[in-house]
Write the structure tokens for this entry.
Amino acid sequence: MSIILGIDPGSRITGYGIIRSLAGRCEYLGSGCIRTSGDVLAPKLKQIYDGVSEVILQFRPDLFAIEQVFMARNPDSALKLGQARGAAIVAAVNAGLDVAEYSARQVKQSVVGTGAADKEQVQHMVRQLLKLPGNPQADAADALAVALCHTHTMQSLIRMAGRGSTVQGVVRGRLR
């Protein structure tokens, strides 16, 4: 059994999603958004760090997965996104968690079946896969999709490594 924290980073809204994976089945534990305030980046990064740290303390995840930065049209936005990712990653590393990173395309492919899926398709599939009563907020759904992608990836690696393997064993071997 593993508890996975997925993060969809953003300088204004950072989504988080927590799932439990047991024998290939996923269970929803929680999700939400860390909303930053103000116009100055440094305090916003602290808010992200503090928010992710709080989620880690509350749910005690075993695994941490985060979406990679994609190069948008605006380089300044990509830099801010990278800094928001950094704040979340530092919170995870300070808590002793290994960090797995996935591109948006990998996440969409894993959850929806196509790397070109839109936000509504991701929300719908997250709702279906986790048997939720309604669609989660878009950023929280994206974070849950990151966690699901990590679970699917780890299950595939376990199948390839052999039945006696564990998620933690595969993660540690994969990251070295």
Notes: The mean pLDDT is 89. The helical segments are 41-59, 75-94, 104-111, 119-130, 138-161, 167-175. The chain has six helices and five strands. Residues 138-161 form the longest helix (24 residues).
